[in-house]
Amino acid sequence: MLVKNFVFKCLGLAYILSITACSSGGDAETTVAGGGRGGVEYGFVSLSVTDAPIDNAIEVWVQFDGVEFMPSSDSPHQDPVLIIFDTPMSIDLLALQGTKSKALLTNEILRTGIYDWVNLKITAVKDGVMDSYIVLKDGTVHELDMPGGSDIGLTIGGGLEVIANTPSANTIDFDLRKSIVMTNPNDFQMQPVIKLVSNDKSGSIEGTVKLSALTAPSCSDTDPSTGNAVYLYEGNNVKPDDVGGTGAEPVSSALVKLNSLTGNYEYSFGFVPFGKYTIAFTCEADLDDQSTDDALNFSKTKNINIKNTRPVILSPNTFR
Q1: Which 8-state DSSP code applies to residue 218?
Q2: Cα(179)–Cα(55) distance, rounded to whole angstroms?
Q3: Superfamily designation of domain 203-314
Q4: What are the residue ranges of CATH 2.60.40.10 in the chain?
């Protein structure tokens, strides 16, 4: 059972991506997720997580302890709603690439109205306890440390609407390529770059890349299983650039992986908000350091318009 409380809590400034406010406390309320209460005052919210991958890791585990919702300043109910999981959820975000996701809440009952932000309660502290951690390709395991710790949490702005007696599904998209920072050889910080996406206002992109593009002389190596990624940029006709630096910043990325069933090297993006995008391929993604301005080689670009929830399918010749 999930326990829901109205709490008094002032959030720290770190990771707050929109304006927040402290509210006075109220009476505690306990409900069961997916219960029958609806009507004009309540709706049902489902919340999942997904991720955009990182090159040098094989697992990225994050411990989720709960979720908090902050009503809009225009709402008559100004108490934040805190939902604490009875048992913390440990999720390997690297297992949730493309269109895969993992549910945090299913048909949770919330009052109708607009919520200005969602705050994820995460435990990621370097204290000798493996709550959140990363497993590298060499087999070494390192704790993830989020500056400010679990007292601050991780706040996502952008707004969430709960409609009377209506279910809504939303997905929290982690971009691990931007979110995991190696400060020292054995120290990894989690500085999450995330967005909240409405499932019914987003689509997906799927495609394949020719083997010749994965092993070209300009690639970082000749291994088709490493260093290959597709970058996604907001807007059409964008000149592609690396993560960080001074050029265009990708909004997401996808690794190119061999599908053993089809024999093709495939990639996919899930939960892409409706809009116009530019897509480009690089076989030097493993050289992309977000703390520096890297001169990566990119393929020719392609414009994509996401207008509905149907997947956009791209041919192997897209990046020729």
Answers
A1: T
A2: 12
A3: Immunoglobulins (2.60.40.10)
A4: 203-314
Edge-to-edge strand ranges of the sheet holding 167-175:
102-111, 42-52, 167-175, 194-198
For residues 275 and 235, give the distance between their C-alpha atoms in angstroms, rounded to a whole number.
8
**pTM of the predicted protein model:** 0.79
Rounded Cα distance between 108 and 42, Å, is 10
Average pLDDT over residues 75-82: 84
Residue type present at position 214: L
What is the residue whose two structure tokens read 């949770």?
108
**Calpha distance 150→154 (Å, rounded):** 8
- Amino acid making up residue 211: L
Q: Which two tokens stand for residue 195?
A: 């967005």
Short-list 161, 64, 167, CA closest to 106? 167
pLDDT digits (tens, 9 = 90+) for 178-220: 888 888 888 898 887 888 999 999 999 999 999 999 999 989 8
- State whether the Cα torsion 181-50-251-13 is positive or negative: negative
Whole-angstrom Cα distance, residue 289 to residue 183? 12
d(CA 92, CA 240): 29
- Residue 183 in tokens: 């400060």
Which two tokens mark 58? Answer: 């094989």
Report the C-alpha gap between 52 and 303 in whole angstroms: 20
62 phi and psi, to 5 degrees? -130, 135
